[in-house]
Each structure stands twice: as structure tokens, then as C-alpha cells.
Amino acid sequence: MFSRILIANRGEIAVRIIRAAREMDIETVAVYSTADADSLHVKMADRAICIGPPPALESYLNIPRIISAAEVANVDAIHPGYGFLAENAHFAEVCRSCNIEFIGPSVEAMSALGDKVRCRTLALDHKVPTSPGSKGKIESEDDAIKLARKIGYPVMIKAAAGGGGRGMRVAHNDISLRSGLSSAMNEAQGAFGDATVYIEKYIEHPRHVEVQIIGDQHGNVVHLFERDCTMQRRHQKLIEESPCPVLDDESRGEICRAAVRLAKAAGYYSAGTVEFLMSQQREFYLMEVNTRLQVEHPVSEMVTGLDLVKLQLRVAAGEKLPVTQRQIQQHGHAIEVRINAEDPDNRFSPSPGRIDHLHLPGGPGVRMDTHCTPGYRVPPNYDSMIGKLITWQPTRLEAIATMQRALAEFEIAPIKTTIPLHMTLMGNADFRESNTHIHFVEKLLGGTGTP
Question: Which of 52, 274, 309, 320 lies at a 20 to 30 A Cα distance from 104?
């Protein structure tokens, strides 16, 4: 097992990793930008090293500076958390070339599954359900139109290296397909440095269901069941829960086995998530694979009793998974809401600034993952998420009731947060009865972002 690791991240995920490492008697080294000098992860780590000014390109995305910090601190491994460099195959390769273990999958598996075109091809070869569409990248407008007419409009244009809704367009006819191709490719080039796109059938009003998997370096892969991430705004997840409230046992088994099959085909180890869209007819279609720990991993931990970060550390150190698939059971229901420093009443505009008052909820069935403390200043330079509130209870309605109670207890001022929106959603009849789809929140808000 490692004696010392560096966390190449910030915020609540850095705190989460530090806590797991401390319980395993592993020393931790935090890196931080000048904007995060007073952040909780800096205070909690055994050592902290400043790696640059606030812009991410000069700090958390600066590979040479992170590697230099790791070498100065003499660490055994680097945990990338999520976001930033977590799915950067080049970063993983650089780490290992410097004799520093990257706590994540192999470069080969990351490349195979991270590129959506290659991932789709692998899925087709191993009978993982995929939506009708192109097997490889789109080479020309004419090819795209020919394929779209064959599978039928509407179709979705997707960036091969995309994520978070960038490089995605829906086309309902030839004209919108031509314009959508151009804009999607330009956006993909700007966001990911790769203009490659592909096309698949657009599934209207689907649910977003994903499977948490973890594998070791000995060929073992298991799943921790599924999560429902249907409640989104502009392709950004707001609420995640496990189990999916509309799945039966047969469908659950099929989707989880398909996820494991794909991971094994790629020779995958470490934590990862296989994401699917589920149609209104309960048919599943592969969407993408996230080759890292997910923001929403706590809900899987709550219903299985397993610690995914500790498992990541063990797998990265070469250990076999300590559990078999048969030993992993799903108990009760867990829900997570993302607390963002945004103003729902003002088109979700960012709300950075100093937190003068903070009272975090607690009590039975409540978990709060955050890096915020009274006096902490939320910087404007990074993602707006400042915490995750998770509840667990034997049933879904009980978990919702606990979430409503916890949200009511949550006090934070003067910055604005998404807590009022979550209060509204928890009380919504359609959400409580699981009559939702991935466009539900936007329709509820009238497309303006205002409750």
C-alpha cells in the first residue's frame, strides 16, 4: 500500500480523498492555487503545496507543476479526483513515466472508453446495447445525411471527446443537421481540441441511468448497481439516487451485466461509470463511460456499504478486490443533491463570495460532503458546486422526507445556492412519483432557469 499520495484536485473531493487515506494510514499532500489557500483540503492534508495562480490552466490543469509538486513531496501515487485531469490519458502516462502511480485506469482503457467513437465500437462488438447510429466518426455532411435518413430523424450529433453537453446538437431534418454538424464540430474543437463527431438516434424524453463499476488489475470487475441521474439542467446533474426507482430486477440485472461486460472488454480497472439512456419503452442505450470517480459516487456507497475511494487506492496498489459480485448487496434508498453557489432566481448566475454564516444539516440518515467552513470565500474561478447533501433511508419516500428535513436545516449566507430549487423539486409530485425525464427540470422552470 502507498505511504504517501498527492491529490491533484480541490474542494470537497480532495477532502473526501484525504479522509479515506487517513483511515488507511496514508499520508496526503494537497496542491492548491492561490485562490484556495484557505480551503479545507489545504488545512486537512499532511502537507500542502501551492502550484500557481487561480486560473486552472496555470494550476490544477498544469501537469508540469503538479508533477514537480509530487516529486518534491516524494509521493508514491497521485489521485486525480474528478474533473480537471481525471480523464486525461496523457497525465496518467506522465505520472507513470515518472514512477508515480496514477490512481485510475490504464492509459489504454482510458483511451478506449474515453473516446466515444471507440467506446461505441467496442460496445457493439460485445453486445452492449447502443442506439442506432454511426459505428465510427462522421467523415462528411453527405454521409451524415444518408445515415440520418436511414435511422430516422431526430438524431443527436455528439463530440467523440465530449462531455457535459458540449459538442452536442439535435437535428430534426437535413438543414438542421448540416448546421448542427458545423457548430458541434467547432464547439468540440474549442472545448476538447478534437472536432471528431458521430451520430446516433435521438431518444426523446429518456431517463439517465448509470452503473457504478470497479475492477482490479487481476481481471476482476464488479458493479455497485445503478444510479438514476435523470434530474438535470442543461445536461448538468442536479439530483442522483440509487436504486433507479422505475427499474425491475430483471432490467437492473441486464444493465449491470452489460456494464461489467464492457469494462472487462476494455481491460478496465479502478472505479468507473457506464452511462445509459433509458427510453420510455424501458430500452437501454449506451451513452458514454466516465473513466474516473463520479461526483455522485456517495449514493452507491450508501446503498452498498462500500467505500469507493478506499477500493480505488487498494486496486491502484495492485491488490485484488476484497469483495465478489455475490457479496455486494443493495440496501435501502439514497439520494444526493448538488449544492451549487448559484442563484436559481437569477438564471442560475454564479454566486461566489465569502460565507459569513454556515450551519450544516445532520442527524440520522444524513451525509454532507463539503469543503466549506464559516469564513470560507467561494472563488469565482472553478465549478460552482460547494457541496453534496446525501440522505439514506429504507425506502425512497423516507429518503426524500429526510432530504426535505436536511435542506430545511441547511443555512448558508450571504451567497445564493441551489437549496431552494432542491426544496421545490423534493416536493414536486411528478418527482416523488418518478414521472420524470432528462428535460423535466427545464420544462418545470419554463426554460428560463427560474423556479
Answer: 52
Same domain for 324 and 255: yes
Give residue 251's Cα distance to chain centre: 23
Dihedral sign, Cα of residue 312, residue 317, residue 322, residue 326: positive
Same domain, 197 and 212: no
Considering the domain boundaries, does residue 123 fall inside one? Answer: no
- Whether residue 115 is contained in a domain is answered as no
pTM of full prediction above 0.85: yes
* pLDDT tens digits for range 40-67: 999 999 999 999 999 999 999 999 999 9
Residue type, 91: F
- Whichever domain contains 157, its CATH number is 3.30.1490.20
C-alpha count within 13 angstroms, C-beta hemisphere, residue 157:
32
CATH of the domain at 237: 3.30.470.20
Q: Per the structure block, which three cell numbers stand in for 69?
A: 509538486
Within a domain: 404: yes
Candidates 158, 149, 147; CA nearest to 180 is 158
* Domain housing 189: 132-201
131 backbone dihedrals φ, ψ, rounded to 5°? -80, 155
234 among known catalytic residues: no
Identify the active-site residue in 10, 16, 227, 292. Answer: 292
Tell me the pairing of strands 284-290 and 270-278. antiparallel
Beta strands in 316-394 (DSSP E): 333-340, 342-343, 349-350, 353-354, 357-359, 366-370, 377-378, 385-393
